[in-house]
Structure formats: structure tokens, C-alpha cells
Amino acid sequence: MPVADPRPLIGEPISLDLLNTRWIHEGEPRDLLADADGLRIWLEGNGLADRFTADGATLMHTRAARDALVALADGTDSAAAAAARVDEVLAHGRIRATLTSQGPGEEAEFADPAWGPAWTAAHGHLALLRTAPDRIRACAHEACVLHFFDTSRSGTRRWCSMALCGNRTKASRHYAKTRES
Predict the structure, then answer these.
(1) How confident is the prediction along the chain (181 residues), in pLDDT tens digits per residue?
(2) Are strands 93-100 and 136-138 parallel, antiparallel or unpaired?
(3) Which of 6, 50, 164, 168 has the fewest CB within 10 Å, making it most exposed?
(4) CA gyration radius for the chain?
(5) What is the H or E stretch that residue 97 is in?
């Protein structure tokens, strides 16, 4: 029986979903990729469990991809260094053009399948960067580390979740105003 994903935000594009395997719960940092069981949950949530194994090597490579994507998204490295880290992950796979009875297609290939989930997430991030890089966002709440892809019509979404971080921000603003009065 599959274990429920414990994270507060799921369903984002795969690269951001990988970033969101780290989150804060009641002031304590959590990490879904602390072990292979957490990796299995992440693989299942992204439709990758039937193609890849949740083992030590896959876990190590997936964490490396997450660290590279964090450096790129949060600017913890210089832009060139962050891009080089993502490029290192991308070097472990490629897209092969195919022709099947259904027509033309593409298939990802990996010399080492343990790099598959890491490469898939990094490759997915390229698609976001191509389409709308300005819509890749970090939550505006100061105590949140989650990321999201802003799909709002106006492109002004600020929080990972209005119900969680948006409400907390508005409540703390209201509390501060009432204390001043």
C-alpha cells in the first residue's frame, strides 16, 4: 500500500516538486529524501516508480540534482556555477528521437539508470526556463522554503499556498496592526 506524501505542497512541475522535498513543518526542517523510502514516495508522486528504483545510488544522484536546482533557483551559487551544476546532471542522459507505429517520438536514455530521476527533473526545469522563467517563484513567506510555478492569469501569485502561507502572512500583518492600535 502506497504511503501518503507528507509534504505541504505537491503537484508542481517535476523540478520544483524535487525542490519541495525539503520543507519546514512547525519550525523544523523536513527532508523527504532523507532515505530511500522517501525517494520511493517522490518517484511514485511523479510517475517514475515503474521506471526507476529507489536505491542508494538513485537517492544520491537525485539529491545532487536537487542541490543543483536549489543553487539555480535561490541564487546560492553564481549563475554560471549553478548552471554548471545543473549541466553536470544533464550530462548523464539524453533524448533519443524515435519512430513508432504511433509516429515520431522521443525517449530519454541514461548510461546509468540511477541518474534517471535526477536527469528528468533537471530536464524538466529546462522546459520551465524556456517557457516562462519569470513564473518560477519561491514562496514569499519568510519561514517557507517551497517553490511553485505561477499559473495565475495575472502572474502575481506570491505564496506556495494561500491557505497556508498567504493566510499566515495576512494574519500576522493584521495582528501587528492591532497591536499598534
Answers:
(1) 668 999 999 999 999 999 999 999 999 999 999 999 999 999 999 999 999 999 999 999 999 999 999 999 998 899 999 999 999 999 999 999 999 999 999 999 999 999 999 999 999 999 999 999 999 999 999 999 999 999 999 999 999 988 878 766 565 564 566 667 6
(2) unpaired
(3) 50
(4) 18
(5) strand 93-100
d(CA 139, CA 160): 5
Q: Are 46 and 20 in contact (CB under 8 A)?
A: no
Strand partners, 104: 99
Q: Which helix or strand (DSSP H or E) is residue 31 part of?
A: strand 28-31
- CA gap 123, 109 in Å, rounded: 12
Of 120, 133, 31, 131, the residue nearest 79 (C-alpha): 133
**Is this prediction's pTM over 0.70?**
yes
Locate cell 526545469: which residue? 125
